[in-house]
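Q: What would this chain look like folded?
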Amino acid sequence: MEAPAASPRLTQLSHGAGCACKLPPGLVHDVIAGLPRPQSPDLLVGLETADDAAVYRVSDELAVVTTVDFFTPIVDDPYDFGRVAATNALSDVYAMGGTPLTALNLVAYSVEDLGREPLVEILRGGSDAAAAAGVAIVGGHSIDDAEPKYGLAVTGTVHPDRVMRNSTARAGDALFLTKPVGSGVVSTALKRGLASPATAAAALEVMTTLNRDAAARALDAGPSAMTDVTGFGLLGHLHELCELLAGAVPAIDGVLDLLRSHEPPVAGGTRRNRDWLSPWVEWADGVSDERRWLLYDAMTSGGLLVAAGEDSGAPGVRIGRLVEGRAGAIAVSA
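A: My prediction, written as structure tokens:
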């Protein structure tokens, strides 16, 4: 009798990994530029600012937050893939200042190619992450696809007067980051067999930590703006006018060593981020190549980026500040 075939490594089944498989941001902007914009005084956040979620007011006291996020495998273990994907999708609601309530599964999977059990584990991981957030998964949609994909469409609520946005930061505010960066580097290293078990475990811990508690602390600090850091990299989500201290940005353990290697594990999404943002970034002398790649890294389930007063008590590490000057410019010092 033949032994059963070993389960395939999920990261070998996709051309990209996690949020690094997003379409280039410039292309997305161009494609939607000609589409009609919904017009309603109750649409508080729509397409205009490429925010983390849409927000629609239903009464003076209540607005609905709606978002969707799904992607290809970023880790090999099906259960962990489900946890990361669900944690990542829920983050958009937290970034808007909201509370997620319900979610729908989005699944692309080939039972014929991969068998039933990995799919069960993916959904179990997503269910456990949602349950930890107090979110009910109430349905979903699936299609047959040889390249696995998983994520959630999430609905939440927020008070209309307490919506957080990515476009309202004040000059003079400090910038705080609540998680270390580099998950895109680690996922690419995993695909190439380069990531150590310790580095992979550190990245998984980052990617499966809900942004719920950090968001609550950030809201207590009275921030002017907030977003989460994902596929467009830290610099992409900082595409406002700011000064950034590269050396202050925390990295996942082992990531800088990976980036110092002869062939650093840089994802295609990270390279696209660099191509998109290069005209806007001014690098000071002394910022190393590995630090530059780190700031462009196409992340999955990253932390919150919070703009708030210097002494506000905002959570995370202070990594820079908002300044007056050329709109969209990012000055990076060592």
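The chain has two domains: 10-162, 174-333.
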